[in-house]
Write a structure and sequence with these properties.
Layout: H1 9-59, E1 67-69, H2 87-91, E2 105-109, E3 121-122, E4 125-133, E5 145-149, E6 154-157
Length: 167
């Protein structure tokens, strides 16, 4: 009599089923962790742009700048020719050049409500910068964003957005 050693088809199917269940539970948590990490990165850059905007206003009283921050023209324009666009922060050395276009978020420098779709004011506080998740992200991540005020306060925009981390 010959003994066969190995797994039966039923045993293998049970193992594959258990692995599938575990994967289906773990993948959504993985994606949320990735999106939360991208959001935390955008908060840090948003604070940076807000602080740079405040420093610019101290150095240039009465002059305000606003608009989206992008690679072209922000990484190639000169300080004198930047005018009142957000590119002036980069051109004049308030913020280092970065690959703005390949980020997961769009970044805006605000003058209150002017500057971009997530800019705005809250009472007497003026929005200095804001970030908004770029199109292409799945729901609910595509509505995430943050607004940063002249006091340094941070406000989450959208549903399910992680709170602003404290620095």
């Amino acid at each position: 009599m010959k003994l066969n050693r190995g797994f039966t088809l039923i045993e293998l199917m049970v193992v594959v089923l258990i692995m599938g269940i575990l994967a289906s539970m773990g993948v959504p948590y993985y994606y949320k962790t990735v999106e939360t990490t991208k959001a935390t990165d955008s908060v840090a850059i948003g604070h940076l742009l807000g602080n740079a905007n405040r420093m610019f206003k101290v150095d240039n009283p009465g002059m305000s700048i606003s608009g989206i921050v992008t690679n072209n023209p922000c990484n190639s324009v000169s300080c004198a020719s930047a005018g009142t666009s957000s590119c002036r922060l980069i051109a004049c050395g308030y913020v280092a050049k970065q690959d703005w276009d390949n980020s997961s978020y769009d970044f805006y420098v605000c003058n209150g409500g002017a500057g971009g779709p997530c800019c705005g004011s809250r009472g007497t506080e003026i929005g200095m910068s804001c970030t908004r998740r770029k199109p292409g992200a799945g729901s609910p991540y595509n509505t995430w964003g943050y607004r940063f005020y002249d006091s340094g306060a941070c406000e989450s925009l959208g549903s399910g957005v992680p709170d602003c981390p404290r620095f």
